[in-house]
Design goal:
Elements: E1 27-31, E2 37-40, E3 43-54, E4 60-69, E5 74-79, H1 81-86, E6 87-88, E7 99-100, E8 105-111, E9 114-115, E10 123-130, E11 143-145, E12 149-150, E13 157-159, E14 165-171, E15 185-187, E16 190-192, E17 199-203, E18 227-229, E19 234-239, E20 264-269, E21 275-281, E22 293-294, E23 299-302, E24 314-319, E25 332-334, E26 337-342, E27 363-365, E28 374-378
Length: 380
């Protein structure tokens, strides 16, 4: 999408205020979590959030935002409607999210992406320009330049494929505007994005169909019951198996809470302290129990439609805690898969015809995460 692309423009925001004229714009700017880089189809993506808190007694309108590397080189620039698409005001439906009300707050969802072969930024800073209260306002009253924040040097988690075979559509996957990416939830007084890099895998058959027959029956869905595999060695810290599978397209069969949102699920703690969440498993299919050690490739359960799910799929993400939502998402990638193509939208899951595959070169990829709406094949 245009507003996610690396900016080609050489235009710059107002220069940072010198040290003897610091910014007095009354907005507090915080990086929510240090970004981690993960590769996806020729780009290294660094998904993270800025939290803006206004201390002003009047509206503050953000006009432009730049991301710069440690040397001050511009990585991306956003303004106008592009900022509206990147920003949300928690708890408020705002027509123009970049206009902060007096004492208001906003979350800016960013992706400091760079193409393969480009130098990887070691740190990121942000320049934010707000609308001036008068035409001759000095830069110190309109512009904030944040200190450089280090990019996380933590190695990303590499998982073996959690599923086997061809035709896996990566829905709500790696992008800056997928549903998972924008799900910030407050648990125990902490607002976090556990699903920052999450994926919902839905299987398509050789004709590109997600279901064959009555779509309101789970058995009609191609992926229902497929084995779900451990992507890495670890210890099971949570396992739920008794929630009913939903009727596709209907409301969940179980009241949704923090405990049931992921349906039947397995959480595996890895040696580095990361947690892998495998969700929406089929009722009665889970083969492992809390405290059990599992090996890479071991069957954990079967793909189902339990919890907050309207069709059979596997939800997978990696985070720093076992909670489905009360944790912070960590970057991960798969050791290997083959890219088969891309669906134009998730509307292909709603039709009996499914995905009409246009010709795309198939590509084997290693150490990457599928981008949103990619269709990938895993080895049998």
């Amino acid at each position: 999408m245009l507003f996610l692309a690396i900016a080609a423009s050489s235009s710059l925001l107002s220069a940072a205020a010198p040290s003897d004229d610091p910014s007095v714009v009354p907005v507090d700017v915080r990086v929510v979590a240090a970004p981690q880089a993960v590769r996806g189809e020729g780009m290294s993506h660094r998904l993270y959030e800025l939290r803006l808190n206004s201390f002003a007694p009047r509206e503050m309108q953000l006009e432009a935002l730049e991301i710069r590397d440690q040397a001050g080189a511009q990585l991306a620039r956003f303004e106008g409607e592009a900022l509206d698409r990147l920003m949300v005001q928690p708890g408020v439906a705002a027509d123009h999210a970049r206009v902060l009300p007096a004492g208001g707050q906003a979350i800016v969802y960013l992706d400091a992406a760079t193409p393969d072969g480009a130098p990887a930024p070691l740190a990121l800073s942000h320049s934010l320009r707000f609308a001036a209260s008068r035409p001759d306002a000095p830069a110190s009253r309109t512009t904030i330049t944040t200190p450089a924040e280090l990019v996380s040097g933590r190695p990303i988690v590499i998982l073996d494929p959690p599923l086997r075979g061809p035709g896996w559509l990566a829905a709500n996957a790696l992008s800056n505007d997928a549903d998972h990416r924008r799900t910030m939830v407050v648990v125990d007084g902490q607002a976090r994005v556990a699903q920052r890099f999450a994926i919902d895998f839905v299987r398509l058959d050789h004709q590109g169909r997600a279901f064959v027959g009555d779509p309101q029956t789970n058995a009609a869905w191609v992926g229902f019951g497929a084995p779900v595999l451990a992507g890495a060695d670890g210890v099971v810290v949570a396992a739920t198996d008794d929630l009913p599978d939903n009727t596709p397209g209907a409301l969940p069969a179980t009241p949704i809470s923090l405990q049931t949102i992921g349906g039947n699920h397995v959480v595996v703690r890895l040696a580095d302290g990361s947690f892998v969440f495998y969700g929406h498993l089929k009722q009665g299919s889970v083969r492992v129990r809390e405290g059990q050690t599992v090996a890479t490739g071991e069957v954990l359960g079967a793909l189902g439609n339990s919890g907050q799910s309207d069709a059979p799929h596997l939800h997978i993400h990696v985070s720093d805690g076992a909670s489905a939502l009360g944790a912070d998402g960590r970057a991960f990638a798969f050791s290997r898969f083959e890219l088969a193509g891309h669906v134009p939208s998730l509307a292909v899951l709603e039709t009996a015809e499914g995905w009409v595959h246009t010709a795309e070169p198939r590509r084997p990829l290693t150490g990457e995460l599928p981008i949103d709406n990619a269709v990938v094949d895993f080895a049998d």
